[in-house]
Each structure stands twice: as structure tokens, then as C-alpha cells.
Amino acid sequence: MIKPMFEMSKVIENKYNCKIKIIQGGSKDLYDSLNYAKKGDLYLPGSDSYIIKYKKDGYLLNYEYIGFNQAVLFVRKGNPKNIKNLDSLLDEKIATTLCNPKSGSIGKMTKRILLNYKGEDFFDDAYDTALEIGTDSRNINKSIIDKRTDLAINWRATAFWKENKPFIDIIPIDEKLAPKKKLAISILSFSKNKRIAKAFIEYSASKDGQAIMKKYGFK
């Protein structure tokens, strides 16, 4: 989500004569950091489940839905290994990368998909077979682009970025296994810039903000 957020930040910076700093990482890692430091203005995890889960802590105030993403299979451009479905994750002739289920939102979603697909044994076998375990979607994309691996599960939108599109194709996963995940951005209770933070949220949910989200593959 870094690219649409970066483009929106430039609009808000120009309007309010401010400087916006964006920190990127796994959704849980980011929350743990803000929870420890009590610094920041906005939190945008890879799924609204993090906002729902952490709402009880009292740090996440008003939030707005700004789109959704969905997990899919990532393969090298042209799909040279003729990968068709999730079963290929157990094929030892195919190099795979999966996200740590305790790190980023795509890791959490990967765990859900694999458990729902064929249960705990399949989930364990898929991670045991994986050549690499990434921490977030950036690591996963890089492993495919660098041709270290052939197959991954990642968020759909990133496959459409201009630096990724020439190297990556996607294979859809049944929505019963990989439901659409809502994206929500929330103001933090300890924000020192609530007026600008609120303006950022309002812009991201506006027609112009939504056009930017769509530009980067989000629905």
C-alpha cells in the first residue's frame, strides 16, 4: 500500500505545508512499534482485522474504509512451471516463498488459506517445503523478480505495479479460501497532528483518493 499512500501524501503535504513520513512493514510489526513508542498519526494495516483486534487497546480512533485487496498466487511471467493451483506449494520441483504467518498481513492470510484448503497438515507441509519465508509482500515480490523462487502467495494489487508487472503473473484463488480483505486507515490516539491526519483519511476515501487506489491495483 506504500505507493498509493505516498502519492496521497504529496497532495496533503502541498495543501497543508507539512512533511509526511511513511514507515512500511508487516502489520503486526508496525502496531507493536507504535504501541511501544506511542508515536505516530495514522495506522494502515493490510487488513481491517488488525484494527478490529487492537481497538480494545484504545490507540486506534476514527477509521475509514478505503478499498480492499485479495490474496492470489504469484508466479513468474509466463508461468514457465505451468503452476495451476495451491497443490503446487508441495511440489519440491517448484521453489516457493511464503510470508511468516506471525509477521505481515499476507502471512496471516496465507495461513488462513492453507488451513481452509486442506487442513493443518497441508499448512505445515507447505511451510516445510518453502525455500524462503518472507516478512512482508516486498520480500515475496523480490524473490519472484530475482528468480530465486517460482511461486508465492501475495496481495493481488502489488502484481500490477509497474516495476513488478513485467516479471509477475497471477493465478486467482477461490474467494471462499481467499476472501477480499478490507483496508481501513485509523487515526492514532496519541497523534500530535489530528487535523492533518483527519484530512488524509478524508482524502483517501474521496473520489480522487479512490482513483489513486485503483491506479495501483486496489479495488
Fold and architecture overview:
- The protein has 219 residues and is of the alpha/beta class.
- It has two domains: 2-68 and 181-215, D-Maltodextrin-Binding Protein, domain 2; 71-171, D-Maltodextrin-Binding Protein, domain 2 (3-Layer(aba) Sandwich).
- Helix content is 40%, strand content 19%.
- It is built from eight helices and eight strands.
- It has helices spanning 2-16, 27-37, 48-54, 105-118, 120-129, 137-145, 194-205, 207-215; strands at 42-43, 60-69, 71-76, 96-99, 132-134, 151-155, 168-171, 181-188.
- A five-stranded mixed β-sheet has the order 5-4-6-3-7, sandwiched between helices. Strands 1-8-2 form a three-stranded antiparallel β-sheet, sandwiched between helices.
- Helix 4 packs across helix 5 (120-129).
- The longest helix is centred in the N-terminal third of the chain and has 15 residues, at 2-16.
- It is globular, with a radius of gyration of 18 Å.
- The two termini are 12 Å apart.
- The model has no long low-confidence stretch (mean pLDDT 94).
Number of strands: 8
The low-confidence parts are none
Per DSSP, the total helix count is: 8
Q: What CATH architecture of the largest domain would you give?
A: 3-Layer(aba) Sandwich
Task: Characterize the overall form.
Answer: globular
Termini distance? 12 Å
Radius of gyration: 18 Å
Q: How would you characterize the largest beta sheet? A: 5 strands, mixed
Q: What's the arrangement of strands in the largest beta sheet? A: 5-4-6-3-7
Mean pLDDT across the residues is 94
- What portion of residues belong to β-strands? 15-25%
Question: For the record, what is the CATH homologous superfamily label of the largest domain?
Answer: Periplasmic binding protein-like II
* Secondary-structure element series: HHEHEEEHHEHEEEHH
